[in-house]
């Protein structure tokens, strides 16, 4: 059973990478490139290269070709340093993105509206990147470049190095397309980052409830029976009164929090309840960890 679950998980990872890179390619070919929005990464640099070489080559160097060429030396260095095994899914992600960029024809979904292009281009790309990350991969690019550079400059984090590299690429977009489109690209980056973070942190939002009460047994029984969620009792001590009591801890879905509070207040109007967000919950009743 464990081996079957591992195989299922591995195949689902590759499926997520394929879908995610397809969404990224759609955003790049149909929205970001036609609008001249450079959001960083090797795809953003490829958009700049395509624009600048358009004066010498008809339609410029294709984006799929630039991303492939830019990634090749990084993977060769990565294979030498880290080995092929650790880069397997990332190599697959980079190859899948280049393939989709080649297969999806160029076009423009919002040719005359930069704001729509920034919002929906960033959203579509963020959704794609998030799916690739959930599939435990990246598409190479500045992620891998930052990781390799950071090995030489260990007093900086990978995130800091990547911000510098992406910042330089975004600035190159200013040179190629002007400051106005660069500012719209910033909007796209914000949308992309927000959506990616939301996917990574989890779409199955839940809440954590801490309940300090004089009636822990009654409340716990009602919550387990009516809300159908587990409850954990934690030994606690009031530092002002010195009284020892049991604090209840319960994780529930957001739609269940109203019922949870009603049960607590009905059984103990003097109970002290703290409710906080739990963005991702793994385990029975929530996301099963295979």
Automatic annotation (TrEMBL):
Keyword Transmembrane helix (UniProt): yes
Location(s), subcellular: Cell membrane
Classification via Gene3D superfamilies: 3.30.70.120
**Chief subcellular site?**
membrane
**What are the record keywords, sorted?**
Cell membrane, Membrane, Transmembrane, Transmembrane helix
Tell me the membrane topology, using the record's own terms.
Multi-pass membrane protein
- An example Pfam family from this entry, by short name, is YitT_membrane
In terms of CDD domains, this protein maps to: YitT_C
Q: Where is the DUF2179 domain?
A: 229-283
| TM segment ranges | 12-32, 61-79, 91-108, 114-135, 156-176
Specify the domain of life of the species encoding this protein.
Bacteria
Give the GO cellular component terms, alphabetically. Answer: plasma membrane
InterPro entries associated with the record: DUF2179, N-reg_PII/ATP_PRibTrfase_C, UPF0750_membrane, YitT
Q: Which PANTHER family match?
A: UPF0750 MEMBRANE PROTEIN YITT, UPF0750 MEMBRANE PROTEIN YITT-RELATED
Question: Under which name does UniProt file this protein?
Answer: YitT family protein
Q: Which organism is it from?
A: Blautia liquoris
């Amino acid at each position: 059973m464990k081996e079957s679950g591992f195989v299922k998980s591995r195949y689902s990872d590759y499926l997520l990478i394929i879908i995610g890179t397809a969404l990224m390619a759609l955003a790049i070919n149909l929205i970001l490139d036609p609008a001249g929005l450079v959001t960083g990464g090797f795809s953003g640099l490829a958009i700049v290269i395509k624009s600048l070489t358009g004066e010498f080559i008809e339609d410029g160097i294709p984006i799929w070709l630039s991303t492939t060429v830019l990634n090749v030396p990084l993977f060769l260095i990565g294979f030498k340093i880290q080995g092929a095994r650790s880069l397997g899914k990332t190599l697959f992600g980079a190859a899948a993105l280049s393939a989709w960029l080649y297969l999806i024809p160029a076009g423009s979904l919002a040719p005359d509206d930069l704001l729509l292009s920034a919002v929906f281009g960033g959203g579509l790309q963020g959704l794609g990147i998030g799916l690739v990350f959930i599939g435990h991969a990246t598409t190479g690019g500045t992620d891998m470049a930052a990781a390799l550079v950071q090995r030489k400059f260990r007093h900086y984090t990978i995130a800091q190095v990547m911000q510098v590299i992406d910042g330089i690429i975004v600035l190159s977009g200013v040179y190629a397309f002007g400051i106005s489109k660069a500012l719209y690209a910033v909007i796209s980056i914000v949308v992309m980052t927000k959506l990616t973070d939301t996917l990574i942190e989890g779409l199955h939002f839940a809440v954590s409830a801490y309940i300090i009460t004089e009636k822990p047994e009654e409340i716990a029984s009602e919550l387990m029976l009516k809300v159908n969620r587990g409850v954990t009792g934690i030994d606690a001590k009031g530092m002002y009164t010195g009284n020892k009591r049991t604090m209840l801890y319960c994780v529930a879905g957001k739609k269940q929090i109203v019922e949870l509070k009603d049960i607590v207040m009905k059984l103990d109007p003097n109970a002290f309840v703290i409710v906080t967000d739990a963005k991702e919950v793994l385990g029975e009743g929530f996301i099963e960890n295979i």
